[in-house]
Input
Amino acid sequence: MDLVQRVEGILIRPKEEWAKIKAEPTTETELFTSYAMVLAAIPAAAQFIGHLLVGQRIPFIGLYHWGIGRALANAVLAYVFSLATVYFFAVIVNALAPNFSSLQNMTNAMKLAVYCMTPGWVAGILYIFPVLGILTILASLYGLYILYLGFQAPMMETPRDKVLGYMVISIVVVVVLALVFGLILSWLFAVRLHA
Output
């Protein structure tokens, strides 16, 4: 699998790319190390650069530049949490499979989890300018469409009439995971004013 071609395919021609992905022999470890770990580094590195060099506008404070240690710690934790989200998402998609008359297959669940995160990870480059971070969320919405097409492929052998329910429950799970990890990061790295 060529990383650049896969990213291009999943972003531009997702329906055709899912057909290739479904037939492609791979392992969860390979998906995680050669795809997820590489792409998840994009938003983490961009956040590091953005917080350190560009700064962040904070109401009543003004432009705030993070220190190198704080920016690095935030980037590392954001990276780890992003990978944890993908892993737990795949585990949950796989665990939910019998509830939707689908076949459990951890490798295919990992494919769904990893590839639907692609738009958010690629758009994560925008974190270099923290004010543009909201656009990353919008790009992640495209990932929901990619996830839908993956369920339609059907990666988990889900009957057509159960795809929507399976996908909605899966989306709720990934949103909750992302919110929990995001809240932890926000709490750890909140700018606190000292009197």
About this structure: The first helix runs from residue 3 to 12. The first strand starts at residue 56 and ends at 58.
